[in-house]
Please model this.
Amino acid sequence: MLAKSITQRSRVVHHRSQRARHVLGLVGRSLALAALLAGRAGSADASPPAGELVRAELIAEPAAVRPSEPFWVGVRLHIKPHWHVYWRNPGDSGEAVAIQWRLPPGFVAGPIAWPTPQRIPVAHLANFGYEGDTTLLARITPPAALDAASPVTLEADVTWLVCETECIPGDAKLSLDLPVAAPGVTGGSNAAPSASFDAARRALPQPSPWAARMQLAPDLVTLRVDAKSLQTGAIRSAAFFPYAETLIRHAAPQQLDLTRDGLVLRLERSALSTAAPGDARGVLVLEEVLGTTTARQAFELADVAIDGGSAPYGAASLVAVLQAAALALIGGVILNLMPCVFPVLSIKVLALVERAGGSGGEVRRHGFAYTGGVLAAFAALGGALLGVRAAGAEVGWGFQLQSPIAVALLAYLLLAMGLSLSGVFHLGSSLQGLGRGLAQRAGLAGSFFTGVLAAVVATPCTAPFMGTAVGFALTQPTAVALAVILALGLGLALPFLLLTLAPALIGGLPRPGAWMETLRQVLAFPVYATVAWLVWVLGQQVGPAGLFAALAGLVLVGLAAWSFNAVQSAGGWGRRAAAGACAAALVGIAVAVAGLGRDRAEPSGVPLSASAPRIERFTQARLDALLAAQRPVFLNMTAAWCITCLVNERAALASEAVQAAFAAKNVAYLKGDWTTRNPEITRLLEKHGRSGVPLYLLYTGGSEPVMLPQILTPATVLGEIDRIPDPSRRRASLPTSAKEQAP
Amino acid sequence: MKPVARRTVLAVGLGGAAAIALDVALAPTIAYPGAQTRIGAPAPAFTLADSNGKSVSLADFRGKTVVLEWTNHDCPYVRKHYGGNAMQALQKKWTAQGVVWLTLISSAPGTQGYVTAEEANRLTSQRGAAPSDVLFDPKGDVGRAYGAQVTPHMYVIKGDGTLAYMGGIDDKPTTRLDDLKTARNFVDAALTEMAQGKPVSVTTSRPYGCTIKYSS
Model:
């Protein structure tokens, strides 16, 4: 009862050649069982012995070893259903599979090539590993001098931890004998091992075609992959499996954002990660939607640059924080010149000085109370915005200008602010009156609330400037963001504080007057400049139709602003008409925003590689000509956003064996790029019942082309090409009608 | 609107903003298990029953160094440390120097590692273990508060209540007894450095072992 499971070790006896393997396996297992029973007098109700949970075997790709020619071997693990073994980074618990090679002298084994792991959740934690059958590959390089007479014995000691809910360590001693190829004999691999090696290679992550960067914040690791032209709709999910074991919280959800420049994954940093990881590499797994199915594609990010400091309060970032805070402070001081703040300022200070009757101490205390009020209001604002940012991060918002709709809305908002500054309409006049009322309260509390109100009330006319500072702050880590926002508040409070500390300066203050109104109108123009810049950004993100929709929206914002003002100042019939115009304008803006969301700029097409002259661009005419000439044709329909297409091209179509087979059978390779929705390609896709890419067709002279599966391996392609009759034989056959109808 | 009503509205608005800000500050500590366990931060407080029926709190040991060892006697990794007498030796060495060594079991009833008080005492004497106390956390609240994931998962708490070390027991995450000879024991190193008044050089490491069988 004490021991619900016992530590058991299975010893799988030597694997000889394939003939004897089966028999010896049985013998081995019975010996192992006998050893178990003899060795450990454990409890009766044990978990299944480790040998039944994982069966290991050593396989080699070539039939024979050739001197100096590296070859692949694999440790194939057959794992009992519902049990799993672990990847190189096992996750929150577990132990990675380890292989200790014992090779003849001169042989060198490379590192394990790990297949793409699966995420295996366990309670509130997560592990990375494998279920079912998996093969760990390794490359072995023989020496130049090999004795052709004696076979080569490769041995591997494999250890693993296999778990379901309980864990059982296991190990196996595997060995494999391979003959040495006689010189001059062409080495060829048997069909069966090659297929399993093909499948094992397909399970490996592909080298990543994209650059990747990692940003480290105290709580967050941001992985940015520069993959332009990915389509938002096509990627269902993304997951990053880091090699470093203590970098991220493995069980936390990974937040994916698809942007025009690629994808961004936000990962929670582990509490165990106290410095930048030594190894920032990992595997990125993307799930791509292909019509009705999804394909899982994995890429090894082997070169991840780390941006930014990892230490949260390091010296370099402190300088950046101070710089941002200094700028915010200056911005806050400038805010005092706004007509909604300035009058309150001078009136309040004068009232204070009169009431205190020159008592410097009391006036100073009021100054501090006012500053306290301003800072409290800004702290609350900062807290609320950071809360929204945190919540927004959960929902998938970004605070950068990535979405054209966000850019358009920001442009409209800023235009409205600018129009307010220009005097087209007035925002927040009731709030300004409120401010004056409270400013007349006596006592320290009064000063505190004056401070709060100065911050709150100032918002409508200071929003464009505050907006920039706050917008910048929100892209920074929490500490920097709060520092910037509080510095802004301090800047706002600073003149008042200075005046209370040195009341004599009041004489030097300019009197409120018409100059304030002029200043306000002048300050509208930087806001209009910002709107122009946002429209330029928008122009990069949408096509001409979308840009027109955005500009029309701007006109409607102007109309809405003017009619809002008309509502307030006109009477009776005029008011109703103005209200109607305002409402119509707002509806129009909503329609414009929806319209521009639909017209995103298409990414540029994938250029055909100039180094592979045998790949021709697809046109219907060229296909017909080739078929008329009775050449077999391989058709590859791809698109810039299609990751599966990319992987298929690299893993299968670009491989030497396939290229050689194409050449041997005189197969013409036509590649169609559907990125710009070429109508000829669309027709072909529809003809074969497909709504998207990839599509692989092999025309072999029969009536209908052979359609290959959407996930290619070299073996699949070679298998189909093998079926094409040799060119010499084909010339003698009767012509068949395989022509497409010209459009 | 009368001035009084305006003031009320404003006060309510500000109160709401303050509440939001407070929520934002507190959210990380509520949301994630073990999110508040950081090196240098106060270790989460707890009160648990021990194998002799007494109630034991972390606060009882204020001023002393406390080591928390999450265990599951059936886990092959725990068996490596106890089988090689390494864990017992470590316990004896440091309890003799005044360190409080608490062994915690967070397995849910019916799962691997769960034991009754009598079984726990029997295991302790059978294995020659020398913890100051064995505590039961069957609901898993304390384990979750600390973010304990596996067995053995080790925490070292300074006399002032802050965390000095958390993570694995050593740097050889295997079940092989031989690896005990060459492994670098992080807990021993941390306690030695603390006894000499030096700062702990390795404050975190990857905890390895079997996952703790928490109640769902």
Chain B has seven helices and nine strands.
